[in-house]
Inverse folding.
């Protein structure tokens, strides 16, 4: 008998030991999935971490349970992936089981979850595969005209009508039952009747879900412009010296074309490429461009793909014929790569690369860089507004830096006009959230058949409703937040736990029926616009309208084809989408971003405003951005107006240095959660004190986070700030030790402790 170590798909640290019979042991290897029992009745698909061995790892032999089955003949996981999982687990203080859960498509975590997609096809029965027999068949159906028609149609579509005696003179084509029914306009009953006569028969065929995107067309790669070519050469030069190169290129400078040239080069060297994007919406635009060039050598992978599709891509990447280029959102870092040569991280500044919930709370940018280094591959980070961390790394020589300052085809940067809405509000000159300047600019654009983008960083109708008499605001019973009002659904929803409530007809506090909205969400703006511009076709893009993959594609498609005139959206629209005909961009409320209680508020606000401004203006005409704010005097507003990234960066860097924030310090948030407020408070105080003993004044808190209760759990937060150069691994080991000490106390049973490393 032998033993193996496995990872279970559960939030549990480390690996678990199981016994295997000699017969099964022969089939076990690293990356092979096995079925194992846990507890009294549970069975899990677990991942084997190595070859069978003789050690029970300290367990008594009777206690070790047996592997039920070995599920794979060859590994589903490559050695580099296992190394990456281990790195992620250690760096992000996340249990290996959480990484396993996040990495594998769920179809690979169930025993029989994966089912190939099948189609029913229709074939011509053997005895009728000659012209004489077919003629007899038609005669026999003299009174069944519909069956005759269907059969004739079938013979035409499949080329069986080309029979010369018993030899078809054209290639016989397969046809699905559905296709036949559609083409011959007959019902399933007619096809069944033909099968009952034993003239036709049906059979099942497995169909692939993968991109059959045709062949590769390198001739479609556009030649680079002179500034692009310069940047490209510099990137290659820098890559000879550095593993990571930051490409700082203004919006519309043609970074995508540059990436395409880099991909072609990697493919010529028989290397694989991973192209990461922060947002699925972006993959929609870039997919078609890349697919035209790279055809079926391109695979797409993100969470909006069905599980079955993701399983197929996973298996293909393990095969002898994997995709050479993978385009995907952050989860694409989990795919198996056999020969990675280049990683492209586009819009590298985006906080969407960080997974917030659930665990593992990993940053796909850092993870991809680590993975690239495991393969000896190079990484290029591209953006118009670099993250503080990446720019600092470039400034200090850790990364290479290439700047691309010329916009493609000489498109000018937009003019940004700042409008002081505090002043206008006082003078009662605002129409809801719109200043007269913005409305005039919109009117002009729309009358010239141009398009408008409006950016509001909140979804929903009004962020909240409020009693006009007593000021009562509805709150979520599970979370410490006010509810968002959605007019179309006439519901109040909690954006933290998803719980929905009906809107009360009068105030539960004072019975006053006058309850109304406060503030403006995207849905309300959409509504107001249809009053002000009744002719305009308005679309809204936010989390509520883009729940499915098709919804994204439709919204973007309609806007780029000009079917809609105004696009209202949350931060989603700021992410590098390219439209040809946008004359005006309105930033409705800059202050909501600037006042956000987080040390990254200015960084995010600057990036969002710069990015969304970059959507204005295309060939020929300079775009206009109307930036509405109550605080036009803030330096950050002027820095956005003048596209002055360097001043912005230097100001912020000073501040970060002074207050011990990244890039000068590593941040780790420790979160504690419990149903009972006193328990979590006591636990947080105790843990804070223990950590302070170890790390001194590097520990801040515990504090109540701005949302201190979510899903009926009270939350506390401790911040650990570590100077660069500290041995992070030993710090993390000690964090885990303290956590274990805490969890051993019965009073803290069901306390949850988790970490957010490098929060964004
Ligand atoms: Zn009231
Ligand atoms: Zn809630």
């Amino acid at each position: 008998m032998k033993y193996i170590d496995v990872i279970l798909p559960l939030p549990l640290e480390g690996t678990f030991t199981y016994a295997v019979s000699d017969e099964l042991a022969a089939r076990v290897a690293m990356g092979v999935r096995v079925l194992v029992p846990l507890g009294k009745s549970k069975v899990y698909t677990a991942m084997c971490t190595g070859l069978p061995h003789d050690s029970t790892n300290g367990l008594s032999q009777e206690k070790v349970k047996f592997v039920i089955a070995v599920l794979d003949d060859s590994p589903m996981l490559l050695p580099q992936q296992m190394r990456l999982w281990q790195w992620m687990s250690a760096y992000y203080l996340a249990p290996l089981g959480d990484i396993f859960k996040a990495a594998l498509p769920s179809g690979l975590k169930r025993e029989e979850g994966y089912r190939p997609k099948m189609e029913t096809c229709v074939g011509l029965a053997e005895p009728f595969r000659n012209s004489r027999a077919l003629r007899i068949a038609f005669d026999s159906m003299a009174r069944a005209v519909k069956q005759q028609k269907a059969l004739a149609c079938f013979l035409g579509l499949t080329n069986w009508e080309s029979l010369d005696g018993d030899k078809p003179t054209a290639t016989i084509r397969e046809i699905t039952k559905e296709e036949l029914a559609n083409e011959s306009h007959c019902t399933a009953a007619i096809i069944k009747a033909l099968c009952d006569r034993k003239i036709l028969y049906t059979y099942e065929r497995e169909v692939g879900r993968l991109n059959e995107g045709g062949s590769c067309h390198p001739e479609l790669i556009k030649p680079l412009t002179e500034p692009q070519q310069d940047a490209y050469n510099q990137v290659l030069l820098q890559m000879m010296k550095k593993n990571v190169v930051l490409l700082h290129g203004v919006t519309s400078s043609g970074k995508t074309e540059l990436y395409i040239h880099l991909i072609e080069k990697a493919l010529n060297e028989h290397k694989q490429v991973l192209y990461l994007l922060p947002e699925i919406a972006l993959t929609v635009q870039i997919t078609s461009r890349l697919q035209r060039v790279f055809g079926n050598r391109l695979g797409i992978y993100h969470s909006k793909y069905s599980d079955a599709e993701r399983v197929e891509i996973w298996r293909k990447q393990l095969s002898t014929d994997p995709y050479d280029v993978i385009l995907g959102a952050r989860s694409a870092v989990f795919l198996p790569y056999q020969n990675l040569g280049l990683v492209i991280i586009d819009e590298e500044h985006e906080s969407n690369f960080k997974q917030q919930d659930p665990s593992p709370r990993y940053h796909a940018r850092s993870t991809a860089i680590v993975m690239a280094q495991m393969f000896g591959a190079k990484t290029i980070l591209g953006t118009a507004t670099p993250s503080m961390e990446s720019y600092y790394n470039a400034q200090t020589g850790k990364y290479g830096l290439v700047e691309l300052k010329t916009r493609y085809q000489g498109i000018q940067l937009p003019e940004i006009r700042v409008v002081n809405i505090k002043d206008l509000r006082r003078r009662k000159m605002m129409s809801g959230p719109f200043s007269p300047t913005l409305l005039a600019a919109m009117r002009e654009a729309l009358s010239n058949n141009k398009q408008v983008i409006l950016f509001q960083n909140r979804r929903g109708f009004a962020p909240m409703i409020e009693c006009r008499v007593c000021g009562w605001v509805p709150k979520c019973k599970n979370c410490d937040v006010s509810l968002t009002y959605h007019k179309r659904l006439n519901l109040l929803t909690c954006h933290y736990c998803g719980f929905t409530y009906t809107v009360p007809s009068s105030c539960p506090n004072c019975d006053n029926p006058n309850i109304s909205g406060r503030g403006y969400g995207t849905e309300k703006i959409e509504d107001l616009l249809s009053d002000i511009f009744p002719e305009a076709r308005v679309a809204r893009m936010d989390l509520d309208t883009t729940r499915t993959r098709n919804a994204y594609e439709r919204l973007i498609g309609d806007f780029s084809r000009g079917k809609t005139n105004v696009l209202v959206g949350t931060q989603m629209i700021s992410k590098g989408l390219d439209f040809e005909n946008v004359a005006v961009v309105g930033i409705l409320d800059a202050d909501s971003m600037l006042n956000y209680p987080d040390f990254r508020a200015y960084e995010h606000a600057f990036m969002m405003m710069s990015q969304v401004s970059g959507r204005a203006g295309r060939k020929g005409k300079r775009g206009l951005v109307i930036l509405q704010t109550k605080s036009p005097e803030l330096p950050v507003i002027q820095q956005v107006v003048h596209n002055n990234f360097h001043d912005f960066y230097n100001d912020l860097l000073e501040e970060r240095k002074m207050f011990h924030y990244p890039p000068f310090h590593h941040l780790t948030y420790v979160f504690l959660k419990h149903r009972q407020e006193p328990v979590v408070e006591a636990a947080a105080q105790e843990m804070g004190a223990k950590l302070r003993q170890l790390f001194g004044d590097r520990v801040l808190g515990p504090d109540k986070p701005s949302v201190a209760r979510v899903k009926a759990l009270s939350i506390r937060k401790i911040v650990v700030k570590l100077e660069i150069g500290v041995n992070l691994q030993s710090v993390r080991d000690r964090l885990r030790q303290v956590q274990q000490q805490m969890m051993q106390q019965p009073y803290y049973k069901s306390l949850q402790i988790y970490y957010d490393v490098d929060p964004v």
